[in-house]
Design goal:
The complex is a heterodimer.
Chain A (H helix, E strand, L loop, with lengths): L7 H5 L1 H11 L4 E2 L2 H4 L16 E3 L4 H13 L3 E5 L15 E5 L6 E5 L4 E4 L5 H8 L4 E2 L12 H7 L6 H4 L6 E7 L5 E5 L10 H5 L8 E8 L1 E2 L3 E9 L2 H13 L6 E6 H11 L9 E9 L1 H17 L4 E4 L3 H12 L1 H8 L2 E4 L2 E2 L5 H14 L4 E6 L4 E8 L6 H18 L18 H4 L2 H14 L39
Parallel strand pairs in A: 2-4, 3-4
Antiparallel strand pairs in A: 1-2, 5-6, 6-10, 7-11, 8-9, 8-10, 12-14, 12-15, 13-14, 13-18, 16-19, 17-19, 18-19
Helix pairs in contact in A: 9-14, 10-13, 14-15
Chain B lengths: L2 E3 L4 H14 L3 E4 L15 E4 L6 E5 L4 E4 L5 H10 L2 E2 L20 H7 L6 H4 L2 H4 E8 L4 E5 L11 H5 L7 E9 L1 E2 L3 E8 L3 H12 L5 E7 L11 E8 L1 H15 L6 E4 L1 H12 L11 E6 L5 H7 L7 E5 L4 E6 L7 H11 L4 E6 L2 H6 L8 H14 L15
Parallel strand pairs in B: 1-3, 2-3
Antiparallel strand pairs in B: 4-5, 5-9, 6-10, 7-8, 7-9, 11-13, 11-14, 12-13, 15-17, 15-18, 16-17
Helix pairs in contact in B: 10-11
Classes of the chains: A alpha+beta, B alpha+beta.
The structure holds flavin-adenine dinucleotide.
The site of flavin-adenine dinucleotide has 36 residues of chain A, from strand 3, helix 6 and strand 10.
């Protein structure tokens, strides 16, 4: 993975630069290499890099001052939440600092009348739900990493979870942000109302992987918890049959709260690990969760079960208690660590496909793995077509990491080929950066990088991520001149 | 006479924008043309009419995705979806008659570009939340694509969110992909009678904070067609019949103390009622009235209306549980901009007021959209410039230069 060549002047001026930082932040500067190493990677641990320094600001004024200081000196900045990104979004740069937002860890306000929570970006996803649980509210997006990942990181990645089929991703639950631009300008986007004046910058900042600004405050919607949740375990003889069953459920007008599928290797790994009571003689296991009022849930459970049996399900079991529902989920939620037990290493891939191609794509995944001598276990957010193939490998065997990455890349290329996309929830980061041209043409990427220029013309915020080429902000030189007269000559040109 | 360009496919659209750019010609982009009176008046050299870009390209109900050309009439999209038991959950409204136009004339691209969600917005999201991907021509004259054609995607910047509600000032859409969802099997409305604004909004907040999954929460102080002209507070419940009935009953129990007078309105009448609410029928007054659309924290809704200067003489109603206030006011030279915006600033830090309908002269003299604070205005301006550097697309429709 090639990162942009470090800026020589910045590397050479490190000491003076860090001395200047020290003045801006009295406590909360890390410069010792041993301590810096705690920040050298995120969840994509195969890539490591020590930054120039790490700052741990506490206030928006500090964030603004530090960003302005970096901007003036052309020093790059990588924002960091909890460092759980699986795509290398928070990987430091050799010639940049890491701005770690862990000290922004306060819940500022909870308002049950407006049904919002206003929190600092370092608050964990689960902490929001916990803070409102006593009033039977929750924050809907629930990434599996929710005990650790920060809401700021969720905003940057537009994180999802098993319930986003019905309740949406982060962006659908986000109402407002306070954000600092690279030049230190503080802007507020949205608020407690449901829409924003002017361009929907809130919408485009969400999912922008830390490249447009540093988020310092987040306002999210909180929802009343449904009265009842019940889960249904359904076993199928083939993954295709399970995929077709998803289409039938949705075809009948039912949008379950969650709709997950695991394939045989994932079922076995999970069952061996947590004993969730999964059937072991099926090729695919579906978990469908229905929520709402008791009578509604009973009705829908019966309906989904009938659809599944008609679609060839060989096994069906509905949860009859809350404990049993939780048990059904433990296997699915432990799928990653479970796979970690059967293989020294695994590489989790994340792509989305049109669901109708599920059977075909799964066969191709097996085939691709086979070509490289690697096995793949699969879990899917089946309702929305988001695949998480886990490629099993052993990093102690020379060549296997590279093979696993090649398998991952080919799986993602397959996703795009059948009409899907490179990432359903983990983001592009450095991991999928060089595949972007598979999904987007040059004109598409150019427009995206131009947007980046509007926020960060010098390209200092998290450069080298997401886009295979840096933006060409200087293109404004090509501005059309009509009969010698610039249109809007009063506007600044960059 | 203004020159009209009417491309019929995306390559003609590219040519039209490129030659406009080369000639320094500005373009007013229209499709159905039903909302030309919305936003600041555009003084463009030519009209780019994209209503010829029509037709559904792909629709697979089980994938919950529909791809169409943006000039496709909303009517056609709605009936195609209905034939498969689906709908656009953001509930696009048909407000063209407010500008004297015919009903049912809007297009899919127009609905996304205007970007307003209907009464289901608090629960199901707005146009932005259902806009998955597009192909468009930017002001450089480049055809580009953004987003995707699947319902879950975080690859690259979420440009569909930016294009939703951008009023055609960033790029001209040539193809759009939207999320579609099963339409609810049943609907009922719990109607509370006789509440004053503050109590009504309290009841709406209680309902929205309960697990009843309310999908519409309005308060009509002046009633609705066929339901009398006394205050009416409406809560919509949608879903499978057994659930709708059950939730309506538990809501009624929850609210008995604040709202002792309540009754249930059934399927057909409910559907009509909510369509009317979305289309602003409850307030239809004189065609000369100015209309304000005020978006704010729901809990500030009633305080905002109460704080308006006395003697404005208008009528209002609340949607989105109080988070959206519609005001119909008698015509005035400044469209009551000073009164509305000053009052709003006093009750809500992040609310915003749009001069939704007013005479052209008023919309020239007053900011139609809430003025942005300087940092945000500068940023918005830079965004515009990176899509449309010569500012040829709908110049000035949003703000001075945007
Ligand atoms: C075991 C495991 C399971 C996971 N399951 C899921 C899942 O189910 N769904 C899902 O969507 N993801 C999942 N993830 C991925 C990851 O948890 C999410 O992407 C999460 O949103 C990252 O949050 P973070 O705080 O760890 O961010 P980091 O990893 O620290 O950073 C991620 C990105 O956000 C940027 N960033 C962080 N904070 C800010 C800020 N304040 N302002 C601006 N930019 C910022 C960084 O620059 C970086 O680009 C999983 C990860 C693990 C390890």
């Amino acid at each position: 993975m090639l990162m942009p060549v470090p800026d020589k002047a910045v590397m050479e001026g490190r000491d003076a630069f860090v001395a200047g930082l020290r003045v801006l932040i009295d406590d909360g500067l890390i410069e010792d290499p041993a301590e810096l190493s705690a920040y050298s990677c995120d969840g994509l641990t195969a890539y490591q890099q020590l930054p120039l320094a790490v700052v741990l600001p506490r206030t928006v004024e500090e964030v603004s001052r530090i960003l302005r200081y970096c901007h003036e000196r052309d020093v790059k900045v990588v924002a960091r939440g909890s460092g759980t990104s699986l795509s290398g979004g928070a990987l430091p740069l050799a010639d940049g600092i890491v701005m770690a937002m862990g000290r922004f860890n306060r819940i500022l306000e909870i308002d049950y009348d407006d049904r919002v929570a206003v929190v600092q970006p370092g608050v964990t996803n689960l902490a929001i739900s916990n803070a409102v649980a006593h009033r039977d509210f929750y924050y809907a997006p629930d990434p599996s990493s929710q005990i650790a990942c920060s809401i700021g990181g969720n905003v940057a990645e537009n994180a999802g979870g098993v319930h986003c089929l019905k309740y949406g991703m982060t962006s659908n639950n986000l109402l407002g942000l306070e954000m600092v631009l690279i030049d230190g300008t503080v802007v507020r986007l949205g608020g407690r109302g449901l829409d924003t004046p002017g361009y929907d910058l809130l919408g485009v900042v969400c999912g922008s992987e830390g490249m447009l600004g540093v988020v310092t405050e987040v306002t999210v919607r909180i929802l009343p918890r449904p009265q009842v949740q019940r889960a249904l375990l359904l076993g199928f003889a083939t993954v295709e049959a399970a995929g077709n069953c998803v289409a039938s459920i949705i075809g009948e007008g039912i949008i379950p709260a969650a709709l997950e599928i695991m394939d045989r290797p994932a079922i076995h790994a999970a069952e061996d690990f947590v004993h969730a009571g999964y059937p072991l003689d099926v090729e695919a296991l579906m978990i469908a969760e229905l929520d709402g009022t008791p009578e509604e849930v009973d009705h829908l459970i019966a309906e989904v079960e009938a659809i599944a049996l008609a679609a060839g399900a060989s096994y069906a079991k509905a949860s009859t208690s809350e404990a049993e529902r939780v048990l059904f989920w433990t296997g699915r939620k432990a799928a990653f660590p479970a796979v970690g037990r059967i293989s020294p290493d695994y590489y989790c891939v994340d792509g989305t496909i049109p669901r109708r191609t599920l059977g075909e794509v799964l066969n191709r995944i097996t085939e691709i793995g086979g070509r490289h001598g690697l096995k793949v276990a699969n879990v899917f957010h089946a309702g929305d077509g988001n695949l998480h193939p886990m490629v099993l490998y052993d990093s102690n065997i020379p060549g296997q990491l590279e093979a696993a990455e090649a398998v991952g890349a080919q799986i993602l290329e397959t996703c795009v080929e059948v009409g899907g996309v490179l990432s359903g929830e983990h983001g592009v980061g450095i991991e999928k950066r060089d595949l972007m041209h598979r999904q987007f043409g040059p004109a598409d990427l150019e427009q995206q990088t131009r947007l980046k220029c509007a926020f960060d013309e010098k390209n200092l915020l998290n450069p080298g991520k997401v886009f295979p080429e840096l933006c060409r902000c200087a293109e404004m030189g090509k501005i059309h001149v009509h009969r010698g007269a610039l249109r809007f000559p009063e506007l600044p040109r960059f | 006479m203004t020159n009209i360009l009417a491309p019929e496919n995306s390559s003609q659209l590219v040519d039209a924008v490129r030659s406009a750019r080369a000639d320094g010609t500005t373009l007013e982009v229209i499709a159905g043309g039903t909302r030309r009176g919305y936003g600041r008046p555009v003084d463009a050299d030519a009209v780019l009419d994209v209503s010829g870009l029509t037709g559904v390209i792909d629709y697979d109900p089980a994938e919950l995705v529909l791809t169409a050309r943006p000039g496709t009439p909303m009517r056609e999209i709605a009936s195609l979806l209905a034939s498969r038991g689906q709908h656009l959950a953001f509930e696009p409204t048909d407000q063209a008659p407010l500008w004297g136009g015919a009903g049912g004339a809007g297009t899919l691209g127009g609905a996304l570009s205007v970007g307003l969600g209907g009464p289901r917005r608090p629960m199901a999201g707005g146009a932005r939340d259902h806009f998955l991907g597009f192909e468009a021509v930017n002001g450089f004259g480049h055809l580009f694509s953004a987003g995707g054609k699947v319902i879950k995607n975080v690859t690259g910047y979420d440009l569909p969110k930016l294009a939703a509600g951008a009023l055609g000032t960033l790029c001209v859409l040539s193809e759009v992909t939207v999320k579609v969802l099963p339409a609810p099997a049943d609907v009922a409305t719990l109607a509370l009678e006789g509440l004053d604004d503050a109590v009504a909004l309290r009841a709406l907040a209680m309902a929205l904070g309960s697990p009843a999954a309310v999908s519409g929460a309005v308060h009509l102080p002046y009633g609705a067609d066929g339901l009398g002209d006394g205050p009416l507070t409406l809560l919509r419940l949608e879903g499978v019949p057994v659930s709708v009935a059950g939730r309506a009953a538990s809501l009624q129990t929850l609210l008995t103390e604040v709202a002792p007078r309540a009754r249930l309105i059934g399927g057909e009448e409910s559907r009509r009622l909510w369509r009317d609410v979305g289309d602003l029928h409850p307030l239809q007054g004189s065609a000369e009235d100015v209309i304000w659309r005020v978006s704010l924290a729901p809990s500030a809704g009633a305080a905002f209306v109460a704080a308006l200067p006395e003697g404005l003489g208008g009528r209002h109603f609340y949607d989105w549980g109080g988070g959206l206030v519609w005001l119909f006011l008698p015509a005035a030279e400044d469209g009551h901009a000073a009164a509305v915006r000053t009052t709003l600033a006093g009750v809500s830090r992040d609310g915003h007021a749009t001069l939704f309908r007013a005479a052209e002269a008023v919309r020239r003299a007053q900011p139609v959209f809430q003025p942005l604070e300087p940092g945000l205005a500068a940023l918005s301006d830079r965004v515009k410039e990176r899509f449309d550097p010569d500012r040829i697309l709908n110049p000035g429709r949003f703000y001075g230069k945007v």
